[in-house]
Specification:
By secondary structure, this protein is of the alpha/beta class. It contains eight helices and ten strands. Helices cover 33% and strands 24% of the residues. 41% of the residues are buried.
Length: 262
């Protein structure tokens, strides 16, 4: 299955015939098999598939965190193929935001300092008005002076998301961002990702195994056996769950506790 752009399609990131192979000979594993997909600007997309389907590998390749065996990937108008380490590092710093299961906050810094840390390291001036807007959207105005140990898991992840947004990246890649959170905290983070798209015009691509998490997205791209096999707009938890059941090698993921009614 190929998900491509139409004439008026504006892509924040795209992959064309992207293939990723690990190992050689008898130990060779094809993690991605000629995947073509594009992610629209100002849209929230979830990537789903059974374990081993290649969803995290796709995100890592498209974010420039892993090399590509064949095909191509681009962030905006910049092709990742052929970029040396220095230019790839600059692209990730300037155009891509990352959110992972682990919050990756520095324990000795306050929430405010963690949010602006990437720009401070890069020597870039912080847009205070933009950061204040993000902080208001995420609801952390009263917690900025607190260090990570003084914040709940949900608050720490919201700091991590705010940090990813602070530099106005072309796109945010989130790999199982609610995986270490309870249902309530996970719902808070997903609602913030949703509002960052609706209110701030951000582009978010999220890898998840959770149908409820996927229901916060505008669109879901399904992978199986390293290939893109389906594409759904306007997902609900039940429609995603039903589609997951029918994927090759798919087994029904469990809906997470209090969020299952969404």
């Amino acid at each position: 299955m190929t998900t491509t752009a139409g004439p008026t399609f504006t892509a924040a990131a795209r992959a064309t015939d992207l293939t990723k192979v690990y190992g050689q000979g008898e130990t060779m594993v094809v993690a991605l098999d000629s995947v073509s997909v594009a992610f629209r600007r100002a849209e929230f997309t979830a990537i789903m598939g059974p374990s081993g389907s290649g969803k995290s590998t796709l995100m890592h390749c498209m974010a420039g965190l892993d090399s590509i065996s064949q095909g191509s990937a681009a962030i905006g108008d910049t092709e990742l193929n052929g970029l040396d380490d220095k230019r790839l590092t600059r692209l990730r710093r300037d155009k891509v935001g990352f959110v992972f299961q682990a919050f990756n906050l520095l324990p000795t810094l306050t929430a405010a300092e963690n949010i602006t840390l990437p720009m401070d390291i890069a020597g870039r001036k912080t847009d205070r008005a933009w950061v204040e807007k993000i902080v208001d959207t995420v609801g952390l105005s009263g917690r900025l002076a607190h260090r990570p140990a003084q914040l709940s898991g949900g608050q720490q992840q919201r700091v991590a998301v705010a940090r990813a947004l602070a530099s106005r990246p072309e796109i945010i890649f989130a790999d199982e961002p609610t995986g270490n959170l309870d249902s309530r905290s996970g719902a808070e983070v997903l609602a913030f990702l949703r509002s960052s798209v609706q209110e701030l015009g951000q582009t978010v691509v999220m890898v998840t195994h959770d149908p409820v998490a996927a229901s916060y997205a505008d669109r879901v791209v399904f992978l199986a056996d390293g290939r893109a096999v389906d594409d759904m707009t306007g997902p609900t938890a039940n429609s995603v769950l039903d589609r997951m059941r029918r994927l090759p090698g798919g087994s029904p993921p469990l809906m997470r506790g209090a969020n299952a009614c969404r």
